[in-house]
Amino acid sequence: MALKIITDSASDSPRWVKEKYQLHVIPTPVVIDEKDYFDGDTIIPEEFYDILRLGKDIKTYHINSQMFYDNFLPYAEKGDEVIYICFSTGIAGTYNAANIAKNELLEKYPDFDLTIIDSKCASLGFGLATYYALKMQENGASKQEIIDGIKWHCEHMEHIFTVNTLEYLLKGGRLSKTSAIAGGLLDIKPIIQVNNDGALESIGKVRGRHKSLKRLIEIVGERGADLENQCIGIAHGDDAETMEFVKEQLSKTYHCKSFMENYVGCAIGAHTGPGIIGIMFLNEESPYKKYL
Predict the structure, then answer these.
(1) Which sign, positive or negative, has the C-alpha torsion 68, 74, 79, 84?
(2) DSSP 65-88
(3) Phi, psi of 19, rounded to the nearest 5 degrees
(4) How far is the C-alpha of 287 from the C-alpha of 270, rounded, in Å?
(5) Sign of the C-alpha dihedral, residues 26, 28, 29, 32?
(6) Closest C-alpha to 265, from 144, 106, 137, 123
(7) Which residues contact 191 (CB under 8 A, 6 or more apart)?
(8) 72: closest CA among 133, 113, 43?
(9) Which of 66, 82, 197, 209 qualifies as a FRET site for 275, CA 20 to 30 Å off?
(10) Terminus-to-terminus CA distance in the chain, angstroms?
(11) Cα–chain-centroid distance for residue 57?
């Protein structure tokens, strides 16, 4: 029997984290031209963004209860304890589906110890929270400390994004056609956050790519704490060059030294398009630093 920490692919957890900690990441489904693929399993972001640019018909749906049942079952059979860090309920129905699977498993395995945590985070927001949990486990934290740490880090995680095109927000119904046309003509770039309910929310608009990136970096300074000593998440939609620019500006402006970088995966990228840039960071100094 062992304690296992797992997550799903909407966390955009980098390959090195998955390899170092043997992290189980449940893949999010994505439908391309009516065929199912699984994020990070049967399709990788590099391929996905090329497909997006071709204008193919792409849809996403959350991991369903049967998928969760199949992924949780081996742990139940072995008697492992599991902590699952879940994509925000404010964006997808993942949490409810996971709980349905849990209840079904408990009928057959009544002693199965599964803790499901709604991260109310997206992308590297809960990728970082997952990484912190794995570090805490590695450094001797108790199960309850790890659970409390996950909840604290998720609660204090800031996410700010900007997109390079309004096309995908329009396709996903998050933007009206009138706003998309006007925004395109004026080169408007929205500033988007994940709010306290775990939902995507526009908090501002600026004109031009450079100004939108500058505004993201300003918000990091306005909201962040202990920036020099925390790990900053930077996620990008197949735009490594812009990610490196943002990283350089964060290092120069706030003396940030530690970064976690990755693509924005299919779960969010399908609705935001190539060129999305997101920065994820803590707004308070972590009380669990002794484990990190």
Answers:
(1) negative
(2) HHHHHHHHHHHHHHT-EEEEEE--
(3) -75, -45
(4) 35
(5) negative
(6) 123
(7) 160, 161, 162, 202, 203, 204, 205, 206, 212, 215, 216, 219
(8) 113
(9) 197
(10) 25
(11) 23
Helix axis angle for 65-78 and 94-108, nearest 10°, is: 40
Q: What is the residue type of 121?
A: C
Q: CB of 205 within 8 A of CB of 212?
A: no
Q: Give the global pTM.
A: 0.94
User: In a structure prediction context, what are the per-residue pLDDT tens digits for the chain, which is 292 residues long?
Assistant: 799 999 999 999 999 999 999 999 999 999 999 899 999 899 998 899 999 899 888 888 899 999 999 999 999 999 999 999 999 998 889 999 999 999 999 999 999 999 999 999 999 999 999 999 999 999 999 999 999 999 999 999 999 999 987 665 555 555 444 454 445 544 778 899 999 999 888 899 999 999 999 999 999 999 999 999 999 999 999 999 999 999 999 999 999 999 999 999 988 888 888 999 999 999 999 999 999 9
| Three-class DSSP category at 19 | helix
State the residue for tokens 């500033």: 191
How many beta carbons lie within 10 A of that of residue 1, not counting itself?
9
Q: In 3-state terms, what secondary structure has residue 253?
A: helix
Task: Please give the helix or strand (H or E) that residue 179 lies within, else none.
Answer: helix 177-186
Question: Which amino acid, one-letter code, is at 47?
Answer: E
